[in-house]
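Hi Y.,

Following your request, here is the sequence exactly as I used it, all 189 residues.
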Amino acid sequence: MPHPHDALLVVDPQLDFFPGGALPVTDGDAILPTVNHAMRVFSEAGLPIFVTRDWHPADHCSFSTQGGPWPAHCVKGTAGAELHPGLEPPPVFSVVQKATASDREADSHFEGTHLDQILRELDVNRVIVCGLALEYCVRAACLDAIKAGFGAVLLIDGTRPVEVEPGDAERTLEELRAAGVQILAGMLD
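Below is the corresponding structure, written out as tokens. Let me know if you'd prefer a different format.
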């Protein structure tokens, strides 16, 4: 790990998803060592790194004020939409902004972007995924990668669940395994 045709996808490492944010994931800070190590490994190997972020308009359809299920979070231009200061991105990486239209949700960075096309142009055939939160945007990224014809590996130590309902995390992992996502524990070599 990694292989010459891999890309790293770091999903939504934004302040609003960490403890103290508008939509915090319990123990979210614990992903940072794994995520930072993965970014170093990919950077040293000269492989592509993509960091995704929600970049919502203030009237986004997912917000409770608009009838959606979530409190306002990751509104473009706000502090909560910024990347976590503990993130240590390399000098070269790409940012993919998603869920930028008021009337459209996008859990995956494959929705409403050209990420699949960019990955193909870079001759990527497998994505390594980490970030927040397991049952939502990380899940969607893994499943959409598979649907788009890429292999997918989830760095389990580089994500954390929300667990709205007890067992959500384990059900998500079962779904990902069934779809062909490889689950990898520990640090990348």
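The beta strands are 6-11, 49-54, 94-98, 126-132, 151-160, 182-184.

Thanks again,
Q.
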